[in-house]
Specification:
Elements lengths: L5 H6 L5 H14 L4 E2 L4 E8 L2 E10 L5 E8 L2 E10 L3 E12 L10 H41 L5 H6 L3 H49 L2 E11 L3 E10 L2 E11 L4 E11 L6 E9 L41 H11 L16 E3 L4 E3 L6 E18 L7 E8 L8 E7 L2 E8 L12 E8 L3 E5 L3 E7 L5 E14 L5 E8 L9 E7 L13 E8 L4 E13 L9
Parallel strand pairs: 1-4, 2-11, 9-16, 14-22
Antiparallel strand pairs: 2-3, 3-8, 4-7, 5-8, 6-7, 9-10, 10-14, 11-12, 11-13, 14-15, 15-18, 16-17, 19-21, 20-21, 21-25, 22-24, 23-25
Helix pairs in contact: 3-5
Length: about 550
């Protein structure tokens, strides 16, 4: 029988070849991804006072049937979960699981790798230092052996021949010196390197322990879906704790009568996940507050019934009455109370500030300051003084509300480039003496305005037909000198007595007549407002007459 040639064997059809092809096809189909791995990233964060909405974006491969996003913060509000996907992805039900961080797979701290790397480097440094100690011990033994041989050398000819010559001793000593010096220098370098590595390791370990304590529990979200092709899925949720606060920097240019207002925002969060390179939006909304305000209760009038005898004490096992819904809502309101308050709203119900650049906010409570722009506003400058309280004058700038939204917040105050103190910008709240829709900022003392208050003149006597009433006259006088080279607008404030009882009569006379007698909506507060030329001095006086019956004791608060 003739055997087929070798090429014929190679090209001959094999009965198992179709089965192999089918098996490979089945294996390939089985390898298609049905469960997408978590490769999500935080793309956008909207920060509210006391909470934040985090938006994650995940890639869903074609053919995926589920997606699991793990290691989410425990402060996640499950009721706020929202899932949006491209039209190529059909989203079904989702599950939320909260478990201990140590149990959840893949939730190790991202700092663990860096910590292990530093620990390995420290171990390597210690090993090299131990080797140098062995070298140092060997060199010491060689030096001691050489010295002993030289001292105990025998007088024989062979021994004298084995004794090292002075040249050999010098060379050996030089080698020992150089080796010992190099060993000591290297040991010192290793010690310094170990100290630097331990110094770098300490904050990383502290941060890992802090994050681990905050993230003792984590949340895992599993989403069932069907992806026809590769697409994106967006998951948004709210977390409690993050917040932001507006702040300002106000710089007064006294020569131009302008104030440069730089708008800033302080952002901090400790939610358990870092916001790295995200699109940040600051909102004045308050999603965690009550959705409905308190309603008025019924007001009824009835005839009071006569008191009934005291009933016996209720049994100890009696159930306490449940608090009313009104009381419960009041408690929730007090718990949710926050210090941030904005009166002007935008976008219908809230104001949003979109930060143009991407921001990184670590989950360590670190306060990140963001610049939100600046505005130069014209200001009305007033030199204000209250001589009865203090012999000093202060520079006050009144600013109308600039265009746009300006939430209330603290402000650092600067005058002609120098820091003078802190204030607060709030265009929504009444400001001291400022018109509606404006605010006033005090930029420190005006050292070129001299204020003097004369001694108080106080006289008391009796009046009435039978001398049954007491009459008291009080006179106060002030002088203000402008030592500037230009004129100023001077405002002098004085508190006059105000009667709270019809039996007490008060009569006030001023020289000159003040512009207001109820300044800043305060009865009795007189305000003189007038220009004062350069080098000029202005005089002000106030005389008050108080009459009241002698049989009453006058209660005076000042």
């Amino acid at each position: 029988m003739i055997q087929p040639s070798l090429p014929s064997r190679l090209h001959a059809p094999h009965p198992l070849r179709p089965l192999c092809l089918v098996s490979i096809a089945l294996l390939c189909n089985a390898a298609l991804p049905s469960h997408a791995q978590d490769t999500s990233r935080i793309a956008r964060v909207t920060v509210y006072p006391g909470s934040a909405t985090v938006e994650r974006v995940a890639k869903v491969p074609a053919g995926a049937r589920s997606l699991t996003l793990g290691c989410l913060p425990a402060s996640l509000d499950a009721q706020s979960l929202q899932i949006n996907a491209d039209p190529a992805v059909r989203v079904g039900e989702f599950n939320v699981l909260t478990e201990d961080r140590d149990v959840a797979a893949g939730c190790a701290s991202p700092l663990d790798g860096r910590i292990r790397e530093l620990e390995d480097q420290i171990a390597g440094v210690k090993a090299e230092a131990s080797a140098l100690q062995l070298v140092d011990g060997y060199l010491r033994s060689v030096a001691q052996t050489g010295a002993g041989t030289e001292a105990a050398a025998p007088a024989t000819t062979a021994a004298r021949a084995a004794t090292p010559t002075p040249v050999q001793i010098t060379a050996t000593a030089e080698v020992l010196r150089k080796s010992g010096q190099d060993s000591a220098a290297r040991a010192h370098q290793l010690q310094r390197k170990q100290e630097a590595l331990e110094l770098a390791l300490k904050p990383l370990v502290a941060e890992r322990d802090r994050v681990a304590s905050q993230r003792a529990r984590v949340v895992t979200v599993t989403i069932h879906l069907a992806a026809e092709r590769e697409a994106e899925l967006r998951l948004s949720y709210q977390v409690r704790g993050p917040g932001w606060q507006p702040s300002y920097r106000a710089t007064l240019d006294a020569n131009k009568s302008t104030v440069l207002i730089e708008r800033q925002a302080l952002v901090a969060q400790n939610s358990g996940e870092d916001w790295g390179n995200v699109q940040l939006t600051l909102s004045t909304g308050q999603p965690g507050r009550a959705t409905q305000g308190r309603l008025p209760r019924e007001w009824t009038l009835d005839v009071a019934q006569p008191p009934r005898p005291m009933a016996a004490a209720a049994p100890a096992m009696a159930m306490a009455a449940a608090p009313s819904p009104v009381a419960r809502s009041r408690n929730v309101t007090e718990e949710d109370k926050i210090s941030f308050d904005v009166s002007t709203l935008d976008k219908g119900f809230a104001t949003e500030f979109a930060v143009p650049q991407r921001i990184t906010v670590p989950s360590s409570g670190q306060r990140v300051t963001l610049a939100l722009g600046s505005h130069t506003a014209p200001a009305t400058l007033i030199t204000r003084t209250a001589p009865a309280v203090e012999d000093a004058a202060y520079v006050v700038a009144q600013i109308a509300q600039p265009p746009g939204v300006w939430p209330a917040g603290p402000a650092g105050l600067y005058r002609d480039g120098a820091f003078v103190g802190n204030g607060r910008i709030d265009f929504g709240a009444p400001s001291a003496g400022a018109p509606a829709g404006s605010t006033s900022l005090s930029f420190g003392r005006d050292e070129r305005v001299t204020v003097r208050a004369e001694p108080v003149q106080d006289l008391t006597g009796s009046t009435g037909f039978t001398g049954s009433r007491t009459e008291r006259k009080t006179r106060r006088a002030y002088s203000v000198e402008n030592r500037h080279t230009t004129a100023i607008t001077l405002q002098v404030l004085h508190a006059a007595p105000v009667s709270r009882n019809e039996k007490i009569e008060v009569e006030s006379r001023y020289q000159p007549q003040p512009a207001e007698t109820a300044w800043n909506r305060t009865p009795g507060t007189a305000a003189w407002l007038q220009p004062l030329a350069a080098g000029a001095t202005a005089q002000f006086s106030a005389e008050h007459t108080i009459r009241y019956p002698k049989d009453i004791e006058l209660l005076e608060r000042q």
